[in-house]
Specification:
single chain; 210 residues; alpha+beta; eight-stranded antiparallel beta sheet
């Protein structure tokens, strides 16, 4: 399924209609999706940016439409996004799987955390995937051409080694331990990506001032 039907569901909701009256300057900025290929526990969220408030309005579209206002990580204004995407949500795993095979990667994809945004005028899918074998796959796909711009794989255990370890956190031993750590790392990976983007923006701003 394409993203547009979710936008239509949102626009028909009373939550959105009340929101857009209150914040007429708001515009669509991103789509956030979790594609759970094992259990089907998918998440569909569409984000609007409110310039007057410098906040993100996150609309959850699973079941009833729900709205949360979130603080932004920086003052950068995102580009407006057109949700008429060329790539279906269901097609993302196939595109990644084909690219993985071309690169000799034999793991299977268990879960995909997908964010679509406009970057430099192009719709880009930023993907973080949980693979079989305790691996994380990171990829960028251009929506219009459906071409893979970046793909790299790293070990969950390597990420965990680099992270500060809470006293109560133990090394995964059983399958249940591993699944629990994967669920935690889903959120951690998203935060890591946000932090990286913030650092890149700060570096670009410094270079621009020289």
């Amino acid at each position: 399924m394409k993203i547009k039907p979710y936008v239509e569901k949102l626009e028909e909701s009373k939550e959105y209609k009340s929101f857009i009256v209150k914040y007429p300057d708001a515009f669509l900025a991103a789509g956030f999706f979790v594609l759970d290929l094992e259990n089907g526990a998918n998440i569909h969220q569409i984000d609007f940016y409110i310039p007057s408030q410098k906040k993100i309005a996150a609309f959850s579209l699973d079941g009833e439409v729900k709205l949360k206002l979130l603080e932004t990580l920086n003052d950068k204004v995102p580009e407006e996004l057109d949700m008429n995407t060329n790539i279906d949500l269901e097609a993302i795993s196939g595109i990644l799987s084909d690219e993985m095979k071309n690169r000799g990667m034999s793991e299977t994809i268990r879960k995909i955390i997908a964010v679509i945004q406009n970057i430099d005028g192009k719709r880009i899918w930023n993907l973080n995937c949980v693979l079989s074998g305790m691996e994380i796959l990171k990829s960028h796909i251009e929506d219009e051409s459906q071409s893979v711009l970046k793909i790299e794989k790293t070990s969950i255990l390597e990420i965990m080694k680099k992270m500060p370890t809470p006293k109560l956190l133990k090394a995964p031993e059983s399958d249940d331990d591993i699944n629990e750590e994967i669920n935690k790392l889903d959120k951690v990976e998203a935060e890591i990506e946000k932090a990286k983007e913030k650092l890149k923006e700060e570096l670009a701003n410094k270079k621009g001032k020289k």
